[in-house]
Structures are given as structure tokens and as C-alpha cells.
Design goal:
3-stranded antiparallel beta sheet; mainly alpha
Length: 251
């Protein structure tokens, strides 16, 4: 078994690599961003599997498991709730995290990520990047779609932009879930059971927390949502691009 200090160094190194990949994805071409985001997401899943296996070995040896934590992400501005919903969808797609939502007057829209510390830290990095990518994609879409909403009210135009961001989150989350399932299958027999056990412990932790159900959001502009959903899937699609880009750093 690795020494705790060695595991911490590995954790920081992998998180640093993931952060660098996603930072580059925020400031490059859409095609390059696809490959970089895809690569980062797959690394996150592989690292999560490694960490889950380490915890299983710790448990068998009578050692305490990794800590379950609660981390808060605050979203402000005109699209705060949409971006929070994006974050919640992405966190749910990761598979081992429970996202909770709240509204705090004077603070903003709150997303609380509950899960094992390493999983939550990675999810925060991924959500932060997709938050930026969603806004960049929305502005590019709106530049092209604005004319179609020329005779709409400002409220309807705002609803359309909101719908795009929410759709982006849904598309990105769907792609992340698909990739996660593929990586888990590649990892071999028993991996799904290890991850399921990890998720069950997080669920039990959340079940012991006082929570309040949030009100359902009003419907988004359908066409804008579909456009955003398509764009969100592209943000996490890139298998072909990755195969062609063997120079990407491996983790």
C-alpha cells in the first residue's frame, strides 16, 4: 500500500494535469477543446476508480477511508441558476457525488457537492471549466441566433439564452455519463461494485443531512435548449480527436 504522503503527491499531480487540460480547453478552438475536455474527464474517472480501490484496501486493513466532504460553489449573475443546474447535472453524471442546491439572498445560487474529497475536488475543476465553456458557447450561438428572436420580448430572449445554457449542461452531463460507463467497463470486473459501494456511503451521508426540496424550474425555450444540449455534448465528445492526438499527456 502506498504511503499517505505519496498518495497525496499523486493526488495533486493528477489534479494539476486535469486542471491544465481544462484550462487549455477554455481558450482554444472548439475541436481542440473537445479532445482536451474529453481527455480530462476520462482521467477523472480513472483516478476515481484508483482512489476507490485504495479505499477498499484501507477498509480491509482496518484503516479509515477517505473523508466525505461538503464543498460549496457559488453562482452569481444573470445565468446563476442555469450554471448551477449545469454543475448539478455534471456532478450527478460523475456518479459518486450527490449535488444539493440552495438559494441564499445576497449571495447567489448555491451548489453543494457531497462526496469523497478527491472526487469533489475533481468535479469542482470540471464544473468550473464547463461553466466558462457554456458561456462562451452561448454567446457564439446568440450571435448567430439573435436575428431569429428579433421580434421577441426581452424576457423571451433572456429565456432563450437561459435555455441554451441549461441545454449545454444536459448535453455535457450526458456525454460525461457515457464516457464514465465506458471507462468503468474497460477497467474490468468488480469496478462497478467498488464504485457503487462508494456512492452508497455518500448517499448514506446525505440521508443524514437536513435538506429541503427546491421548487422546479420553469420551462426553457425548447429550440435554445436543444441547441445548447447539442453544444454541450460536443464539449465532451472527442474520441476520434483523442485517437489522432497521441501527444496528449497521459495520467
Amino acid at each position: 500500500m502506498r504511503h499517505p504522503i505519496e498518495e497525496e503527491i499523486m493526488t495533486e499531480a493528477k489534479l494539476d494535469l486535469i486542471a491544465k487540460l481544462l484550462a487549455k480547453a477554455e481558450s482554444t478552438t472548439p475541436e481542440e477543446a473537445e479532445a482536451l475536455t474529453e481527455h480530462a474527464a476520462r482521467l477523472m474517472v480513472k483516478y476515481g476508480i484508483d482512489q476507490a480501490r485504495i479505499d477498499e484496501r484501507r477498509a480491509r486493513g482496518g484503516h479509515p477511508p477517505e473523508e466525505i466532504v461538503q464543498e460549496r460553489m457559488v453562482f452569481t449573475g444573470a445565468y446563476a441558476r442555469d450554471l448551477r443546474d449545469l454543475g448539478g447535472a455534471v456532478a450527478h453524471a460523475v456518479g459518486t457525488i450527490r449535488p444539493l442546491q440552495a438559494e441564499l439572498a445576497g449571495v447567489g445560487s448555491i451548489l453543494i457537492l457531497v462526496g469523497y474529497a478527491s472526487d469533489v475536488r475533481q468535479a469542482q475543476v470540471l464544473i468550473g471549466s464547463l461553466r466558462i465553456q457554456a458561456m462562451v458557447a452561448m454567446r457564439a450561438w446568440w450571435d448567430a441566433a439573435r436575428v431569429a428572436y428579433e421580434w421577441h420580448t426581452e424576457s423571451e430572449r433572456r429565456r432563450a439564452r437561459s435555455g441554451f445554457v441549461r441545454g449545454f449542461g444536459g448535453g455535457a452531463a450526458a456525454r460525461i455519463a457515457e464516457n464514465r460507463n465506458a471507462v468503468v467497463e474497460e477497467a474490468g470486473s468488480g469496478t462497478d461494485l467498488v464504485l457503487a459501494s462508494r456512492r452508497q456511503r455518500v448517499d448514506a451521508f446525505v440521508d443524514g443531512m437536513p435538506t429541503r426540496r427546491a421548487r422546479r424550474r420553469s420551462g426553457a425555450d425548447a429550440g435554445a435548449y436543444v441547441s445548447g444540449h447539442r453544444s454541450g455534448r460536443q464539449a465532451n465528445t472527442g474520441e476520434a480527436a483523442i485517437r489522432e492526438r497521441r501527444s496528449l499527456p497521459q495520467g
